[in-house]
Amino acid sequence: MFAHKRSSLALSVVLIAVQMLSWTPTMSLRQGAPETVCDTMLPFHGGGIPPRDSLPPFRIETSSSVIGQGQTMRVDIVGVPPGLSFAGFVVQARNRNSPHQIIGQFNPPSDGSAKLMNCENSVGNSVTHTNPGPKQSVSLEWLSPVDFLGDVVFNATVAQAYDSFWVGIPSDPVQIVRRDTTDTYPQTTRKPYVTPPPRGPYTPQTEVPQVRATAEDPLYADCGVSKTCFGFPDGCIATKSCKAMSAITVRGDVYEFELKTGSDGAAYVALGLSEDAKMGDDLVTECVPQNGQVNLYSSYTAGAPNYAANRANVPQNKARLLESSVVDGIIYCKVQRDVVTQVQGKTFDLLNNNYHLLVASGTGLKENSVGYHDIGRLPSGSPINLAVVQDLSGSSTLLLRLHGAFMVIAWIGTTSLGIILARYFKQTWVGKQICGKDQWFVWHRACMVTTWSLTVVAFIIIFVEIGEWSGERNPHAILGTITTIICFIQPIGALFRPAPNSKNRPLFNWTHWLGGNLAHILSIVTIFFAVKLTKAELPEWMDWILVAFVVVHVIVHLIYSIFLCMQIAGCFADRQQTQNVNAFQMSDMGHHGMRNGHRMERKMDAPYAGFRKGLLAAYIICVVLFVVALVLIVVLAPIEETFNKLKNN
Ligand SMILES: *[C@@H]1O[C@H](CO)[C@@H](O)[C@H](O)[C@H]1NC(C)=O
């Protein structure tokens, strides 16, 4: 408490001192920079005070990234965070490829907040402040020359106080194009946030990163030629439609990683280097827009069961943010990474080791970490030497698709049918036994054995594929496991069922009925949750097909149940039959008293057998159609993109 008070007192004293210092009659801050700063951009603050070399807390923002010859645009100097004030500045535009050449001309601001300087005998090509009072931003108008084509970078020196200033703060490059072509260039309003590259000697880059959200995103250019690109959904590099992507360029031992999202809504984009294509023990590069800039983080993933990407104990100085932007919600960053990074005793050697790429993006952030990759993630199929340019595809999803297809066939198909048969067809096809067994029983058993086998295989498949407990925050895995366990036990119970007239038979009937129906309901719920799994890449509208199936299934149940009720209530003429049905139903569900009816129940079909069989046929056709549709969606996932691909070919 007291310490706090004391330190804030000390801080105010320092601030007042700084304030006073900046008012001392020094030529430079008082009246703006003299023209001797034209080339070096160094203010002569008392001579010998060096510029700060920390990341500058100021940004140079331009109103557009492309401009025609002889056109004007706005150039702003703003604080990071916004509102941070500064005292003095000098700005000029420089040729990106020849940083000593000053380009273009400023218009004198009407409010007198800045004045023009004539550097290199050229009028008004630089601007400086007119008074050293605190300002939170400066807005300038710049006119591009008519005789220059190419990229310029605004270069600024900004002084917070007399002895605290940053030299050579660059803006993002602005491309000057022929006037007649500007119409085809959307005058992109420039970004809410743009981080300046870290200070230091500015090295002109050969390729121009144009961050535009059009189909001709230049990040895709030269994929597979000079850089290795990878993103999701799988195959999106070819169709230039990635939701998140990475591009790796290697020149000598310079490793550059570009990361970008494909649409608005992402809170981060990240690239993991992984030995096994699974989350855990991976070196991750994260680009995270925060507080008006894009931050770069390195993190290290923890695998099952406590999935996480932790930044603690991961060296943050092994990667540097070269460029970054957020334009229309699309995150872009370019990062240079050291060849060797040691993390918690593990060495990531980009030169000598091969890695899987793991691209991920999500909509949420946690404290000191990125959130779950709910937009998606994709590991590359095989580990690669990053320096070898190649076309990459995602790791195989065959097992995933098989799991889905098997489960759909089992739980939408054979289980539904098996349950209907056992519940409503015990008194149909009476007297036409197969190998001494009732028809309904033979078919019920066939259906359920199929369900059981498919479920067990699909369950094993998914554990082989994922290799561990699923990390997705989704009840699919837990519900599916419960369903599988019940399903697994169900036939074992049936195998040891008591004889039909044993006193334990009703108990068996109840539990068998309960187990079967419970598993069925759980399985449908589990399939609904599967639609939400990012890994499954299922379309949201698959929910409606599932709902339609549930409606059909429930309606068929209802119709058959109404028949049963009517029989039990004696609505049908034949008393004998009615009694039999009654007896049968009761004993089936464990009612005692009427076990005498048991013998008689199988003598003849329950009434309306023809109608019930017809309904069954219709139901079977429906179920088959549902199963075929759902299996196609699962196997061809992501089905919309699969169709688009087919259309384009
Ligand atoms: C900005 O000016 C400084 C001083 O002349 C120079 O060293 C640096 O390269 C310039 N930066 C850009 C982006 O032109």
UniProtKB/TrEMBL annotation:
Residues 185-206 are annotated as: Disordered. SMART domains: B561, DoH. The keyword Signal applies. Keywords: Electron transport, Glycoprotein, Iron, Membrane, Signal, Transmembrane, Transmembrane helix, Transport. It is a multi-pass membrane protein. Residues 242-362 form the DOMON domain. Pfam families: DOMON, Reeler. Residues 23-192 form the Reelin domain. Residues 1-28 form the signal peptide. Its main location: membrane. Its cofactor is heme b. The chain crosses the membrane at residues 402-425, 446-464, 476-496, 508-532, 544-566, 616-639. PROSITE patterns: CYTOCHROME_B561, DOMON, REELIN. Residues 366-566 form the Cytochrome b561 domain. PANTHER family: CYTOCHROME B561/FERRIC REDUCTASE TRANSMEMBRANE (PTHR45828), FERRIC-CHELATE REDUCTASE 1 HOMOLOG-RELATED (PTHR45828:SF38). Belongs to the FRRS1 family. This is Ferric-chelate reductase 1 homolog isoform X1. The gene is LOC105228920.
